[in-house]
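User: Here's a chain of 252 residues. Predict its fold as tokens.
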Amino acid sequence: MDSNEAYSPSASRPAGITSTMKTFLSLILVFLIAQVIGVVLFGLYLHMKLDKVGDELNLQEDVTFLRRLQKCQKPENRDASLLDCTKVLSHFQDLVRFQVPQESSMAKQTGDKRPSASIHLAGAKDNRKILQWRKSVYAPSDDTFSYQDGKVTVSKGGRYYIYSQVAFCTKRAPHAPFSLYVYLNLPSELDQLLLKGVGTHGDSDDLCGLQSIHLGRAVELQKGHVVFVNVTDSSRVNYDHGNTYFGMFELS
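Assistant: Prediction complete.
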């Protein structure tokens, strides 16, 4: 070989993947990813479409059933040859029997309870021994109770909590102790004492050394029972807002 022979660059071969091949492979990969996304989106669309068609078919069946039921309710259509009214009415009655127990069960599970009955009254100035009352602002009002001449009547038997507070003026002797009573009035019987509270003398030189007595307890009442509040000296009762009140509420 001649040492002066020139080296030919065309004799060398490129190593690895060319840029054209890389571009081609990238396009194929993008195409495959687009195909997968397209298939997924089409599947979701088809699923939603089938659900919608199913709902429409169910709605159409319900409308058809209601139309048949409406026709079967008319006497002239019950004997029609194209309508099996006996089967339609029987199916409707089965649906009603199934729905009513289901609703009752749901009501029990959710703890559906009626609100407890209650009444709250504020003191009304009067000179009678039995204290008089009036409806208090924002206080509950319930048909379970009726009020007249200082007495609250219960229209439904049950267990109730009765409470009362009376504010009164207290002075030094010779005034007698101030007492508060809550009575149960029974027909043709003597009044039964439910609660009693006794106030003490004050040592204040003011015209009215204000004190209060608060009572409360649970009782079992029957329909028609009457409850009222009594004091030893109603002229000493203080009727300022929130000082004197009487009420009861039903215990669950």
